[in-house]
Amino acid sequence: MPKRGIQPVRREQLIRATYATIDQVGLADATVAQIAHAAGLSAGIVSHYFGDKNGLLNAAMRQILRDLKAAVARYRGRADDTPRAQLRAIVDGNFDQTQTNRTAMRVWLTFWAASMHQPELARLQRANDHRLYSNLCWQFRRVLPPERARAAARGLAAMIDGLWLRGSLAGGDFDVAQARALAYEYLDHQLGAGA
């Protein structure tokens, strides 16, 4: 009989091993056996907790989305309640180290590509896109007319994703400070134009 409380530990081990394996060999070449080996567990454990490789990938994407949500919430919790401060906090959360380290960036790129072919991953990606847009739009609407707020939110969401994507593909370290500065400049321009 398994020890009480071991399931979350094993699930976490397997999810982190999935990240590491994708980072090393990519999604296409990652096998359940490699992931289990990286976690120091048997391949049967993957089936027990996740069903199959797709179930494990789904759980891994859910975890990276939870990490993103937690990072954004952490920055927003520390920020003033002004629209500018809250918007900057959303930018900061998206460029947090949990989202911009080498492994996280490779995992995100893998999931984005896989979401074009796997309906469950596509659903998770759409939910993530909607959450970002909705949070940005809510803050912009505090100071801009609705249509302008929607356009500003679409633009900032695209800028966050674009800066992140360019940074991930550039090789080397991601210049988080530069990405934040560019996003801040865009949002300050939108807020200044609306004043």
Automatic annotation (TrEMBL):
The gene is betI. Residues 31-50 bind DNA. This is HTH-type transcriptional regulator BetI. Pathway: Amine and polyamine biosynthesis; betaine biosynthesis via choline pathway [regulation]. GO terms for molecular function: DNA-binding transcription factor activity; transcription cis-regulatory region binding. Repressor involved in the biosynthesis of the osmoprotectant glycine betaine. It represses transcription of the choline transporter BetT and the genes of BetAB involved in the synthesis of glycine betaine. Repressor involved in choline regulation of the bet genes. It comes from Vulcaniibacterium tengchongense. Residues 8-68 form the HTH tetR-type domain. It comes from the Bacteria. Keywords: DNA-binding, Repressor, Transcription, Transcription regulation. One of its GO terms (biological process) is glycine betaine biosynthetic process from choline. InterPro entries: BetI_C, DNA-bd_HTH_TetR-type_CS, Homeodomain-like_sf, HTH-type_TetR-like_transc_reg, HTH_TetR, Tet_transcr_reg_TetR-rel_C_sf, Tscrpt_rep_BetI. The keyword Repressor applies. PROSITE patterns: HTH_TETR_1, HTH_TETR_2.
